C-alpha cells in the first residue's frame, strides 16, 4: 500500500476516532467534574505507563520483524499470544498481593481491574504491531476506532445508567481494550510455531524502541503527576483537558508516522524524500491546528467540556510552540526508529524529560498551570531540535532540504 493511500485510510479512521474521542472526553469530564477528571488522568496515565513497560517492546519488535522478515509472522503471532497469557497470569498474581502491601490503598478488586487493563493494553499493542509491520494499514486503523467507539458506549452505560463514577469509566476502558485486543488478535492471526530465539530478538530490537517510546510518553505526560502533587486533583482535572487536546493535535503526526514506518522498514525511503516531505506537511498541519486553537479554543473548550474546564485554554496556548516542534520532530524520529532505534532515539527524549521535570519542579509552585505548560513546551522543543540535528548528521543532507524539496 503506498503512503498516500495508507495515510488517507488512516486519516479517515483517525478523523472519526478523533470525533468519538472528543465526545467521550467531553462526556466523561461533564459527568466526573474537575476532581474526578483529575483522578482519572492519574489512573489512565499509570495504566498506559504499565502497558508501555510490559508491552511497548513487543509492539515495536513485532512491527520490526513483521516488516523485515515476513516469513516469521506466524511465529511472531504465536510468541505474542503466549507472552500475553503469561503476563495476564503474572499480573493477576501480583494484584492479589498488592492490597496487603499497600495497607488498604487499593482493594483487591481495584488491583485486579488495573492488572487486567494493563494486560489488555499490552495485547492490543502486540497484535497491532504485527499488522503495522505487515503494512496492513486498513486493519491497523480499525483497532483504535473500535476501542474509542466501544469506550464511548460503555462509558455511557457506566456513567449514565449505572452511575458508577471513576470505577465505571475504568471498567468501560477495560471492556473496550479487551474488544480491540481480540480484534487485533483475529486480524493478525497467522499460523506458526513458538520461537524463543525470535522472541529474544524481538526483545532486543523492541527494547530499544520501548525505551524511546516510553521516554517520549513520559515527556508528554510526566507533568500529570507533578500537577497533581503541587496543585491537587481538581486543578489537574482542568489541566488534563489541555493535555487531551494537545494529544489530539498530535494525532496527525502520529498517523503519518504509523503509515510511514512500514515503508521505512522496507527501504522505500532510502533517499529520505518521503520522510522530509511528510515532516514539512506535518509542520504545516501543526501550524494550522495551533492557529485554530488560538482563535476558537476558548469558547469551544467551555462549550464542549463545560465552564469548570474553561481554564484549560491558557495552558494549552502555552503548550502550542512545543507541540508544533514535536509534531515535526516525531516524523524524523520515526525515520530513525525504522533504522533500528539508534541511541539518539533514547537519550534525546531522556534529556528532554529530565529538563521537563526540573522545569516543572521550579515553575509549577510559582506559576501554576502556566508553569507546567511552559515547562512542557520547552522540553518538546528541545526533543525536536535534538532529533532534527541528529537526523541531519546521520543522513548528511543539506539543511535546505528540510524546508524545500531539492
What order do the helices and strands follow? HHHHHHHHHHH
Relative helix content: over 70%
Could you tell me the radius of gyration in angstroms?
21 Å
Query: What does the average pLDDT come to?
Result: 85
Which term fits the overall shape?
Answer: globular
Q: Give the DSSP E fraction (strand runs of 2 or more residues).
A: under 5%
> Which structural class matches the secondary elements?
mainly alpha
Would you report the number of β strands?
0
Number of domains: 1
Total number of helices: 11
Low-confidence stretches: none
How many strands, what sense, and barrel or not for the largest sheet?
none
How many angstroms separate the termini?
26 Å
Write a brief structural summary.
With 406 residues, this protein is mainly α.
Description:
The structure is a single chain. The protein has 406 residues and is mainly alpha-helical. The chain has one domain (3-402). It is 86% helix and 0% strand. It has 11 helices and no strands. The model has no long low-confidence stretch (mean pLDDT 85).
Task: Give me some keywords for this one.
406 residues; 11 helices
Note the topology:
Layout: H1 3-68, H2 73-101, H3 108-133, H4 137-161, H5 165-188, H6 196-231, H7 233-249, H8 251-265, H9 273-305, H10 313-337, H11 344-395
Amino acid at each position: 500500500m503506498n503512503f498516500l493511500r495508507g495515510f488517507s485510510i488512516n486519516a479517515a479512521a483517525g478523523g472519526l476516532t478523533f470525533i468519538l474521542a472528543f465526545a467521550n472526553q467531553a462526556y466523561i469530564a461533564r459527568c466526573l467534574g474537575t476532581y474526578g477528571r483529575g483522578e482519572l488522568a492519574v489512573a489512565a496515565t499509570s495504566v498506559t505507563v504499565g502497558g508501555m513497560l510490559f508491552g511497548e517492546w513487543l509492539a515495536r519488535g513485532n512491527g520490526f520483524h513483521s516488516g523485515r522478515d515476513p516469513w516469521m509472522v506466524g511465529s511472531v503471532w504465536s510468541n505474542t499470544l503466549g507472552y500475553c497469557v503469561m503476563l495476564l497470569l503474572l499480573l493477576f498474581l501480583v494484584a492479589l498481593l498488592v492490597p496487603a502491601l499497600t495497607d488498604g490503598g487499593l482493594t483487591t478488586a481495584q488491583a485486579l481491574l488495573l492488572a487486567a487493563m494493563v494486560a489488555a493494553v499490552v495485547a492490543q499493542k502486540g497484535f497491532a504491531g504485527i499488522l503495522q509491520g505487515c503494512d496492513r494499514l486498513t486493519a491497523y486503523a480499525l483497532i483504535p476506532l473500535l476501542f474509542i467507539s466501544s469506550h464511548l458506549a460503555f462509558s455511557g452505560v457506566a456513567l449514565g445508567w449505572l452511575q458508577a463514577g471513576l470505577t465505571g469509566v475504568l471498567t468501560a476502558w477495560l471492556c473496550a481494550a479487551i474488544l480491540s485486543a481480540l480484534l487485533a488478535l483475529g486480524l493478525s492471526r497467522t499460523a506458526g510455531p513458538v520461537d524463543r530465539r525470535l522472541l529474544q530478538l524481538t526483545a532486543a530490537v523492541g527494547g530499544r524502541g520501548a525505551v524511546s517510546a516510553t521516554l517520549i510518553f513520559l515527556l508528554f505526560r510526566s507533568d500529570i503527576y507533578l500537577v497533581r502533587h503541587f496543585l491537587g486533583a481538581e486543578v489537574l482535572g482542568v489541566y488534563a483537558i489541555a493535555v487531551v487536546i494537545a494529544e489530539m493535535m498530535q494525532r496527525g503526526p502520529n498517523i503519518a508516522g504509523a503509515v510511514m514506518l512500514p515503508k521505512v522498514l522496507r527501504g522505500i525511503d532510502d533517499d529520505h524524500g518521503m520522510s522530509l516531505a511528510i515532516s514539512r506537511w506535518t509542520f504545516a498541519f501543526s501550524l494550522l491546528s495551533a492557529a485554530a486553537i488560538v482563535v476558537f479554543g476558548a469558547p469551544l473548550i467551555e462549550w464542549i467540556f463545560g465552564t469548570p474546564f474553561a481554564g484549560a485554554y491558557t495552558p494549552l496556548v502555552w503548550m502550542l510552540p512545543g507541540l508544533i516542534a514535536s509534531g515535526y520532530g516525531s516524523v524524523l524520529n520515526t525515520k530513525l526508529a525504522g533504522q533500528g532505534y539508534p541511541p539518539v532515539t533514547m537519550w534525546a527524549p531522556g534529556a528532554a524529560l529530565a529538563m521537563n521535570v526540573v522545569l516543572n519542579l521550579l515553575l509549577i509552585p510559582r506559576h501554576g498551570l502556566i508553569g507546567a505548560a511552559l515547562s512542557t513546551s520547552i522540553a518538546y522543543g528541545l526533543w525536536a531540535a535534538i532529533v532534527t540535528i541528529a537526523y541531519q548528521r546521520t543522513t548528511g543532507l543539506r539543511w535546505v532540504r528540510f524546508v524545500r524539496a531539492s
